Amino acid sequence: MEQEEKSLNFIEQIVEKDLADGVNDGRIQTRFPPEPNGYLHIGHVKAICLDFGIAEKYNGVCNLRFDDTNPAKEDTEYVETIERDIAWLGFKWGQIYYASDYFQQLYDLAIRFIQAGKAYVDEQTAEQIAEQKGTPTEPGVASPYRDRPIEENLRLFEAMQRGEIEEGKMVLRAKIDMANPNMHFRDPIMYRIITSHPHHRTGRKWNVYPMYDFAHGQSDYFEGVTHSICTLEFEVHRPLYDYFIDQFSGANFCGLSPYGPDYRPKQREFNRLNITYTVMSKRKMLQLVKEGLVAGWDDPRMPTVCGLRRRGYTPSSIRTFMDRIGYTKVEGMIDQGLLEHTIREDLKETAPRVCAIFDPVKLIITNYEGEGETLTAENIDGIEALGTREVRFGRELWIERGDFLEEADNKFYRLSPGGREVRLKNSYIIQATGCEKDAAGNITTVYATYDPNSKSGTEGGNRKTKATINWVECNSALDAEVRLYDRLFAVENPSAEEGDFRDLLNPESLKVVTAKVEGALRSELHAPILENGIPKENHYQLLKQGYFVVDQDTTTDKLVLNRTCSLKDNYLK
Ligand code: ATP
Ligand code: MG
Question: What is the pTM for the complete model shown?
Answer without folding.
Answer: 0.94
